[in-house]
């Protein structure tokens, strides 16, 4: 007759000899990096992602017949201390510096902003500055209006009234 204690001890010993396990929730850049680090530390890793793809905000949409970056198009702080910069370098991908301190989206330094078109040609600097000026003036006008937010249905009703529908 087999002792149940032996079976219990064998199972416990087998569990203790296995690698630790972890579940990582989210397949964006941070989740993938966490799963990679855990795997390198000898963990058994399961990564859970709710979408039908991994990558999080790092995604390029080709449904229009040309690539449209849906997020994570800029890498801020391109320097040796930024681990993403070294990964990009190892992959051989080009990095274009957009301002002296890489904070163009925060300080709106349009004079040192480099913008490239779909063919990789630099957009003339005067055009970048003109578009930026119009954009910021427009945002200022919107912010100065003290109106209540309107829902899509309300806006649609106004359009229909204007068109006599």
From TrEMBL:
<dbReference type="InterPro" id="IPR050281">
    <property type="entry name" value="Flavin_monoamine_oxidase"/>
</dbReference>
<dbReference type="GO" id="GO:0005777">
    <property type="term" value="C:peroxisome"/>
</dbReference>
<dbReference type="GO" id="GO:0046592">
    <property type="term" value="F:polyamine oxidase activity"/>
</dbReference>
<feature type="domain" description="Amine oxidase">
    <location>
        <begin position="29"/>
        <end position="140"/>
    </location>
</feature>
<keyword id="KW-0560">Oxidoreductase</keyword>
<comment type="similarity">
    <text>Belongs to the flavin monoamine oxidase family.</text>
</comment>
<dbReference type="InterPro" id="IPR002937">
    <property type="entry name" value="Amino_oxidase"/>
</dbReference>
<keyword id="KW-0812">Transmembrane</keyword>
<dbReference type="GO" id="GO:0006598">
    <property type="term" value="P:polyamine catabolic process"/>
</dbReference>
<keyword id="KW-0472">Membrane</keyword>
<dbReference type="InterPro" id="IPR036188">
    <property type="entry name" value="FAD/NAD-bd_sf"/>
</dbReference>
<feature type="transmembrane region" description="Helical">
    <location>
        <begin position="21"/>
        <end position="38"/>
    </location>
</feature>
<feature type="region of interest" description="Disordered">
    <location>
        <begin position="139"/>
        <end position="165"/>
    </location>
</feature>
<protein>
    <recommendedName>
        <fullName>Amine oxidase domain-containing protein</fullName>
    </recommendedName>
</protein>
<keyword id="KW-1133">Transmembrane helix</keyword>
<dbReference type="Pfam" id="PF01593">
    <property type="entry name" value="Amino_oxidase"/>
</dbReference>
């Amino acid at each position: 007759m087999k002792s149940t204690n032996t079976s219990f001890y064998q199972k416990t010993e087998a569990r203790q000899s296995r690698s630790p396990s972890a579940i990582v929730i989210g397949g964006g850049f941070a989740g993938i990096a966490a799963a990679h680090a855990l795997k390198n530390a000898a963990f058994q890793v399961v990564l859970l992602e709710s979408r039908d793809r991994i990558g999080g905000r790092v995604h390029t949409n080709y449904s229009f017949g040309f690539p449209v970056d849906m997020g994570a198009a800029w890498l801020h702080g391109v320097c040796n201390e930024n681990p993403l910069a070294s990964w990009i370098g190892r992959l051989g991908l080009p990095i274009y510096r957009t301002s002296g301190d890489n904070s163009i989206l925060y300080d709106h330094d349009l004079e040192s902003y480099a913008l490239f078109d779909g063919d990789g040609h630099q957009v003339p600097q005067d055009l970048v500055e003109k578009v930026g000026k119009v954009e910021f003036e427009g945002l200022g006008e919107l912010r100065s209006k003290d109106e209540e937010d309107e829902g899509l249905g309300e806006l649609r009703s106004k359009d229909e009234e204007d068109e006599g529908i």
